[in-house]
Write a structure and sequence with these properties.
The complex is a heterodimer.
Chain A (H helix, E strand, L loop, with lengths): L7 H17 L6 E10 L2 E11 L4 E5 L6 H8 L7 E6 L2 E3 L4 H7 L1 E4 L11 H8 L6 H14 L15 H13 L5 E5 L7 H16 L3 E5 L3 H7 L2 E6 L2 E6 L6 H9 L18 E10 L9 E9 L3 E5 L6 H9 L10 E3 L2 E2 L5 H6 L2 E4 L14 H9 L6 E2 L2 E2 L1 H14 L16 H13 L5 E5 L7 H16 L3 E5 L3 H7 L2 E6 L2 E2 L3 E2 L5 H8 L4 H11 L1
Parallel strand pairs in A: 3-8, 3-9, 6-7, 7-8, 13-20, 13-21, 16-19, 19-20
Antiparallel strand pairs in A: 1-2, 1-4, 4-5, 9-10, 11-12, 11-14, 14-15, 17-18, 21-22, 21-23
Helix pairs in contact in A: 4-5, 4-6, 12-13, 13-14, 14-15, 17-18
Chain B lengths: L1 H29 L7 H19 L2 H25 L4 H20 L13 E2 L9 H6 E2 L1 H19 L1 H11 L1 H6 L4 H27 L11 H11 L4 H23 L6 H25 L19
Antiparallel strand pairs in B: 1-2
C-alpha cells in the first residue's frame, strides 16, 4: 500500500483495520531463524543463533559492535548464506539465495553502511532498489509521495554525493518503505537524526507495526529501544545471551546484558571552571561552501575557553562540514583573524601549521577522511602526526617508533584488532573510531576539534571516547564537539550552540537548556521565541 | 568545394573505427572494468575479418567473424579479471600483446591478397544533394552503424533500467551486490559488448579502409580509443566529438603536409594527439568547475569478488 503512495490519513485507516484483523488471528511468527551458524575462517560470527519475530512487533537486536548482529541480518536478507541452520518464513523453510528473493518475500533492509551510489541521483538510487521496472519519473513521483507521507523529505533529482549523512539515511529508509516490506530491518537508523526526526521515525515505525508489519531494529541507544520495542534479542560474541521485553528493563540492565559487565557512566566534575582564557575564537566568519550544494557559513562567532567542552548541535548539512573545514584549516578563511588560535590569527594557515600550534582534528568520516582505508594503522599515524610526532629522522621513517605509537594508542583506547598493525579498513567502525580519536588525544593537544565522535559506535566504545574527551578537557584542553547526537552533547558538553543554515546560535550553558529548546533551534526556530518556552519548562 | 567534401569524407572514415572501439570501451568502463586490450581485440577483428571474408568470399561473414573474434578475446579477458579477479591493468596489457601476436599468425596466409572493400550505401535522391548529400547519405554501413551505436548506448545508459544497473555496478559494486544484482554477470556482458565493438572496429580497418591484411595495421588506434573514453568523461556523445576531432586533425595534418607547410612533418603528425588532449581536457575542466562531481566510474579498474 505504500507503493501506491496513499496519503497518511488513509494509511492510518488501513492500519486500524489491519490491526484489528491482527488481533483476531492467532499469533504466528513471521520469520524464524533456527540455529543459524556462520563462520568467517576461524571466527564464528553467528553460533547457533535463534531469533523469532512476530508480525506487528518491533523487535530489538542488541549487541556490541562485532557481536554478530550484522551477520545475522545479512543472512536474513539473503546477502550471506548460513553454514548451518535454517530460516522459516511464516512457518515454512525458505532459501534466500540473494536479496531479490528476500525482497520478494517482503523483507526490506536499511543498511548501517549506506549502500548508496554517490554519482547517481536520489531517484536513481531508489529505482535500483525496486524490483519492478518503473520509469524514473514515476519512481520520483512515488518517492515524493512516500517521503511526504512518512515525514522524510527528499528531493528526487539531487545527486547523492551532495547530501549529508542524515539525508542519505533518509533515502535508505524511504527506499525500503517503497518496497512495501512485511519485515523491515533497520541497522542503527537514528544515529544521525534530530530528536524531532527521531520522533517522526518512531511514529513511522509504530505506524508500520500497527499495519501488521514487523520491524527488526538494531540500535545502540537503549532508551530508544525501551520506548519503542516490545521484544529484544541480545547477542554477545555471536551467541544469543538473552531474550527479554525491553520495556521491563532499565538501560543499565540492557547494557549489562550486551557487554557482560557494567558500563560506567561518564565521570565529570559537576561544575568545571570554564572561565579560563579564550583558546579558540572564530569571529564574524563568512565562508562560501566549496560544494555548490553545500551550506555557506554566515557570520559565525564562537569562543572556546581553556578547559571547556563546547558542543555544536545541528541537523546534518547545516554547515557543520564547512565549520570543521574552516577551523581545521582544510578551507582557508577569508581573513586571517577570522580564526584566532591562542591569540594568533591562523585563518590563512594550513592544517599542519595549526597542528603545530597544538591543535588536533578528527573529521566525521573515519574511513576515507580520518584514515586512509588501505594503509596500515602505523602509516595512518604517520600521515596524521608527522607534523608533531617525530617519526622521522633525516627524512626516513622510524618504523619502531611508529609501531610503538600504534601500540600505545591501541592499549590506551582498547582498540581491538587481529594483527599488530592491520590496515585501517580491517578494523570495525568502533575500533577504528577509538583509534582515530585516541591518536589525536594521546598527542595531548591544547585544542581538539572532533566531529561525530561516536557515530555508529557501540555503547562501550562510545563511553570510552566520551570519557577521554571529558578527561582531556579536565586537564585544561579545549574541546569542540560537533555532533548530531544530543544525548552525547548533554552528557559531556559545558555549553551548546546550534548551527542552522550556516549560522551559529549563541552558546548556552547546558544546565539552562532542554532537549526541546535545542530541537527547536535545530529546526531553525528563533532563539528569542524559544526563550520563554525554555524558561517555563525550566 | 569538392575538395572540402573529399576531406569531410576522409575524416569520417578516419574517425569511424575510433568511435566504434571507444563506444564499446565506454560501456565496459561504465561497468567498472578497465580493458586495456582494445588494441589486441581490434587487430584480431581485423585479421579474422579479412581472412574469413577472403575464404568465404562474403564481407558479411567477415564482419561477423571479426565481431566473434573480438568477443572471444574479451571472454578470455573476462575469465581472468572477473572469474579469477586478476589485476585488470596487467590482464588488459597482456591481451593487447597476445592479440598483436596471434593476429600475425591468423593473418599470415592472407598477406598481400587484395579484395574489393565494402561498398558505400547510396540513398537515392538524398545522396544527390550537393555537399551534404555525399557526406550524410553516401557512406558505408559501418558509419551508419557507429552513429546508431552512439545513440543506442547513450539511450541505454541513461534511459533504461538495465543501463542504470550497469552504471551502478561501475560506481559501487559492493552496494549493487547488496541490492541483489549479479555484478560479475553484468560486467561480463559489458566486457563482451566491448569486445564485439573492438572486433567490429578492426573489421572496418581490414574490410573498408585498407581492404587487405598487413600485420600491425591497427597502428595504435586501440590506444587512441581508450584515451578518447577518458577525455570524453565517459559520455557517448562526447566520445563521438573526440573521435571526429581526432580523425579530422589526422586528415588535416596530412593535407597540410602535402600542401608543403613549412613545419616539420613529425610535429604535424603529433599535432592531432596534442590538440585532442588539450580540447578534451578543457571540456573536462569545465565540467568539473560546473560542480558535476567526479566523472570517472568510482570503482573503475578495481576487482570485485562477492563474498557469500
Amino acid at each position: 500500500m505504500v507503493k501506491t503512495g496513499r496519503s497518511a490519513p488513509m494509511l492510518r485507516a488501513v492500519c486500524r483495520v489491519q490491526a484489528r484483523a491482527g488481533m483476531t488471528t492467532q499469533r504466528r511468527p513471521l520469520v524464524q531463524a533456527e540455529a543459524l551458524t556462520r563462520r568467517f575462517g576461524d571466527l564464528v560470527a553467528n553460533d547457533a543463533v535463534d531469533l523469532t519475530v512476530y508480525p506487528g512487533e518491533i523487535h530489538a537486536l542488541l549487541g556490541e559492535n562485532g557481536a554478530g548482529k550484522s551477520t545475522l541480518v545479512k543472512m536474513l536478507y539473503g546477502l550471506l548464506a548460513p553454514d548451518e541452520g535454517r530460516i522459516l518464513w511464516e512457518g515454512a523453510p525458505v532459501a534466500l539465495p540473494d536479496p531479490t528473493a528476500a525482497r520478494a518475500l517482503g523483507i526490506g533492509m536499511v543498511f548501517q553502511h549506506f549502500s548508496l551510489f554517490d554519482a547517481l541521483s536520489v531517484a536513481e538510487n531508489v529505482a535500483l532498489a525496486l524490483d519492478d521496472d518503473a520509469p524514473l519519473a514515476q519512481v520520483a513521483e512515488r518517492l515524493r509521495e512516500v517521503s511526504r507521507a512518512y515525514g522524510l523529505p527528499l528531493e528526487p533529482d539531487r545527486g547523492v554525493w551532495r547530501l549529508s549523512v542524515g539525508e542519505r539515511q533518509r533515502i535508505e529508509i524511504v527506499r525500503c518503505l517503497m518496497q512495501d516490506p512485511r519485515l523491515l530491518i533497520l541497522d542503527e537508523p537514528t544515529s544521525v537524526l534530530t530528536p524531532q526526526e527521531c520522533d517522526g521515525l518512531f511514529d513511522t515505525l509504530r505506524t508500520l507495526r500497527d499495519e501488521g508489519r514487523a520491524v527488526l531494529y538494531i540500535s545502540h541507544k537503549l532508551d530508544e529501544v525501551r520506548a519503542l520495542c516490545e521484544a529484544a534479542t541480545i547477542l554477545r560474541a555471536g551467541r544469543v545471551v538473552e531474550r527479554c521485553d525491553p520495556r521491563t528493563q532499565s538501560s543499565a540492565s540492557l547494557a549489562r546484558m550486551m557487554v557482560g559487565t557494567q558500563i560506567s557512566d561518564v565521570r565529570r566534575s559537576a561544575m568545571r571552571d570554564v572561565s579560563g582564557p579564550v583558546r579558540l575564537r572564530v569571529s564574524n566568519l563568512d565562508l562560501p561552501s566549496e560544494d555548490p550544494q553545500g551550506t555557506s557559513l554566515k557570520g559565525v562567532n564562537l569562543e572556546l575557553h581553556a578547559g571547556e567542552i563546547l558542543g555544536i548541535a545541528g541537523v546534518a548539512g547545516n554547515g557543520q562540514d564547512e565549520l570543521f573545514a574552516a577551523i581545521s584549516g582544510e578551507a582557508e578563511a577569508p581573513r586571517a583573524d577570522a580564526v584566532v588560535l591562542d591569540g594568533a590569527p591562523v585563518g590563512h594557515e594550513g592544517i599542519n601549521r595549526r597542528r603545530r600550534r597544538s591543535a588536533a582534528f578528527v573529521p566525521e568520516e573515519r574511513l576515507g577522511h580520518a584514515a586512509a582505508p588501505r594503509m596500515s594503522l602505523s602509516e595512518n599515524a604517520l600521515v596524521a602526526g608527522h607534523a608533531s610526532n617525530g617519526f622521522l629522522r633525516g627524512g626516513l621513517i622510524q618504523r619502531d617508533r611508529m609501531l610503538g605509537w600504534v601500540d600505545s594508542v591501541t592499549s590506551a583506547f582498547d582498540v581491538r584488532k587481529g594483527p599488530r598493525d592491520p590496515e585501517a579498513r580491517d578494523l570495525s567502525g568502533g575500533n577504528l573510531q577509538k583509534f582515530v580519536v585516541g591518536r589525536e588525544i594521546l598527542r595531548k593537544p591544547d585544542l581538539l576539534v572532533v566531529m561525530q565522535p561516536t557515530w555508529g559506535v557501540d555503547a562501550g566504545a562510545a563511553s570510552l571516547i566520551r570519557q577521554s574527551l571529558v578527561d582531556l578537557a579536565q586537564g585544561g584542553a579545549s574541546v569542540l564537539v560537533i555532533s548530531q547526537d544530543l544525548d552525547e552533547l548533554f552528557e559531556i558538553a559545558d555549553r551548546v550552540a546550534v548551527i542552522f543554515t550556516g549560522r551559529l546560535s549563541a552558546a548556552y550553558p547546558v544546565r539552562e537548556l532542554t532537549r526541546e529548546r535545542v530541537g527547536l533551534l535545530m529546526g531553525g526556530a528563533d532563539p528569542a521565541a524559544a526563550q520563554p518556552e525554555m524558561e517555563e519548562s525550566a | 568545394m569538392t575538395l572540402a567534401v573529399a576531406i569531410a569524407l576522409t575524416i569520417i572514415t578516419a574517425a569511424t573505427p575510433l568511435l566504434i572501439a571507444a563506444i564499446g570501451e565506454l560501456v565496459v568502463e561504465r561497468a567498472g572494468v578497465l580493458n586495456l586490450g582494445v588494441e589486441g581485440m581490434m587487430i584480431m577483428g581485423a585479421a579474422t575479418g579479412v581472412g574469413v571474408a577472403i575464404v568465404t568470399e562474403s564481407s558479411l561473414l567477415g564482419v561477423l567473424a571479426a565481431i566473434a573474434a573480438g568477443m572471444a578475446l574479451s571472454a578470455l579477458f573476462a575469465l581472468m579479471v572477473l572469474g579469477l579477479a586478476a589485476n585488470q591493468y596487467a590482464s588488459g596489457l597482456a591481451l593487447t600483446i597476445f592479440g598483436l601476436g596471434l593476429s600475425g599468425v591468423v593473418g599470415a596466409p592472407f598477406v598481400g591478397i587484395q579484395r574489393e572493400g565494402i561498398r558505400r550505401i547510396e540513398l537515392p535522391l538524398l545522396s544527390e544533394i550537393p555537399v551534404i548529400g555525399p557526406i550524410l547519405f553516401r557512406q558505408d554501413p559501418f558509419v551508419y552503424a557507429s552513429i546508431a551505436l552512439v545513440a543506442g548506448v547513450a539511450w541505454f545508459l541513461w534511459r533504461t533500467r538495465a543501463g542504470l544497473i550497469l552504471r551502478a555496478c561501475g560506481e559501487n559494486p559492493v552496494s549493487a551486490h547488496a541490492l541483489g544484482y549479479r555484478v560479475l554477470r553484468i560486467r561480463l556482458y559489458a566486457v563482451l559488448f566491448g569486445g564485439a565493438c573492438a572486433g567490429l572496429a578492426g573489421a572496418y580497418l581490414s574490410l573498408v579502409l585498407t581492404p587487405f591484411w598487413t600485420a600491425g595495421m591497427t597502428a595504435g588506434r586501440g590506444w587512441i580509443a581508450l584515451a578518447i573514453v577518458v577525455f570524453a568523461s565517459w559520455l557517448p556523445l562526447r566520445a563521438m566529438l573526440g573521435a571526429y576531432l581526432f580523425g579530422g586533425l589526422i586528415i588535416l595534418q596530412l593535407h597540410a603536409q602535402t600542401a608543403g607547410v613549412n613545419i616539420p612533418s613529425q610535429f604535424l603528425a603529433a599535432l592531432p594527439y596534442l590538440i585532442t588532449i588539450v580540447a578534451l581536457t578543457l571540456i573536462m575542466a569545465a565540467r568539473r568547475s560546473a560542480g558535476r562531481g567526479s566523472v570517472a566510474p568510482a570503482s573503475l579498474g578495481q576487482p570485485f569478488a562477492p563474498a557469500r
